[in-house]
Amino acid sequence: MQAYLRTVLLLTVVMSVIGNVFAQGPSPCVYAGGSVVGQVVNSAGNAIPGTQVSVQSYGVSGVNSTGWFRLSNLIAGQNTLDISAPGYQSQQQSVDVVGCGGTVSVGQIVLAQSPQSTSSLPGFSGDLVIVIIVLVGLVGIAVGVLVTLPRRRRDSTTAGKLPMV
Fold first, then answer.
1. Where are the domains of the chain?
2. Is the pTM of this model over 0.85?
3. In the CATH hierarchy, which fold is given to the domain comprising 29-110?
């Protein structure tokens, strides 16, 4: 009888330990998201309007007027940031996100200007803009000259006749 009770007691303890181990699962911090903060600037250190920062398979965050961004509730572990802005070369940066509500700073991310975006007018190259400005200036000069030329009076006696030299 004592052997039977020892066996039952031993099995109860073993089952309790096994049940507790499997019931708890991984640490809750594995599932608690982390945050990433940083600043996106151009080569002069200025914020870039229209910049977007996203994490693959997650969401998108715009930057504020000083270039700062914050992505929250990211899955802990390795993530890739996609950084893009109109007129600038896109960039990807790898970041190791800390779980349990931790925040990781990626510091300053500098985007290089795209080679084809040397003009402030979208869709036009710099040379074309200069040609258009020169042509508009020439047309303005021609109109000014034509307006200021003295007008000949025409009366019935000189109408249709060439002027005498």
1. 29-110, 116-146
2. no
3. Immunoglobulin-like (2.60.40)
